[in-house]
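User: Here's a chain of 499 residues. Predict its fold as tokens.
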Amino acid sequence: MLAASVLAPLLRRRYNRWGARRAEAEGALPGDELVPRTDLGYTRAVTVEAPVAEVWPWLAQIGQGRGGLYSYDGLENLLGCRIHSADHVLPEHQCLRRGDLIRLGPDGYPAFWVHEVDPPTTLVLLSAGPEAAQRRGTTDAGDAVATWQWSLRPIDGGRRTRLVVRQRLSCPPSQRLMWRVVEPIGFVMERRMLQGIARRAARERPATPDDANEPPTNDGPARLRGGLQRRLGARLAGLDLPAAPRDLTPVTEDDIRGLPAPARRYLRFMGVLGRPRDWSVRVRWTGHFRLRPGRGWQPFEAWQYNSGPGVARVFVMRIDVAGYVPMFGSDTYVAGRGRMRGKLLGLVPVADGSGPEFDLGELVTWLDDAVLLAPSMLLVPALTWRAVDDDTFDVVLTDHGRTVTGRVSVDELGRVRAFSTGDRYCALPGGLVRARWTTPVERWTVSGGRPVPHGGPAIWDLPEGPYQYARGRLDPGSIEWNVPPTSRTRGRRPAAPAH
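Assistant: Prediction complete.
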């Protein structure tokens, strides 16, 4: 940082337009009019390997006491800023409103008012003085000597985002020299912030010694497999699943009063209170899959539909074997029966499993889906909640005479860390082996105003060690609740592979 300050006069133009294209640096942004005469200012930008909707949640939660600043926390905290940058989306900080206060430190440190917020593309902040905490609600432009303007712009057909940030500052002549001195330091910190947002939104993962056991970091097939949606619809059309909700009564505190404490914490975080019970959910996944331990990773895409009344699940998937040859698979649980099938090119059968093991396994997979995607489906007489400890509970489901158990661990906010069960069978070369199955959630995001899992791995705990066979990512633009089984999916083009 000392070097940056010494070289500042030579580098100002470069670091004040870091990452920005000419049109971005010279073009207008929302909020420019709030400080029409600028003494200092800059425009910077970064390309994020994620759609706008997946970048916005990280921006929406910025601030001390919120999601942090995604920069050098250690340096900021040496100055007493008390910054702790989050590595996951915080649903409790996603609803920004005009007049909210965004702090850069505790009371007495710089802060900004939210002047304009238009998710998921625009955030305009106005500077606020140290007394801001005592003047909440004042957002007049007359209070401002600086703006902090953020703009998210879709590129490459919406698959990626240009994140543009601008600051416009008006200050007395006596303060300009001081601002010139701190300007390069601010650049270093903000560049790290932009990179931090980009890295988090793109789901970059640090390298580990176990990376040989990990799939590639892209999100699966680069082209939309529209045939999967039609396959899902065709499967559902042949089933007699409910097409309308049975109960529109909102869930109340009385409905969860007798449940274990961590279960109540989980249901509150998931936002079930005040909403009618969900009766269906449909979602698209992308990621990577491998068919056997030691085999290579193959890209996949999947669509699924889960029904609450009657307990049913239909999951259709395409795996591109060797990256080119399509294999279509399906997992179903309907009327108490589970089945798994796979066909190479959609024609040549390569797998067909049914029987008690598949009945049990598909039922507990439905239970896992309900825990992560539609928890109010669990508020039924057929399900029992059991306390384990302060952060863990079991859910026990009985359907068509079969009973399965899932263990759910949650954090202090109620976010699910992992679902695990001993009621599934792993298909190995020697046959089916009953083993512990776990689906950890790496982080949470928000879709349709609800917390949803961003994605994570699926892992078998085998005698020879853990076998991670899938890593999936939920497409937040695809998930829909309470839709009839034969309604048209609203899927969008998937994100391009991250590099």
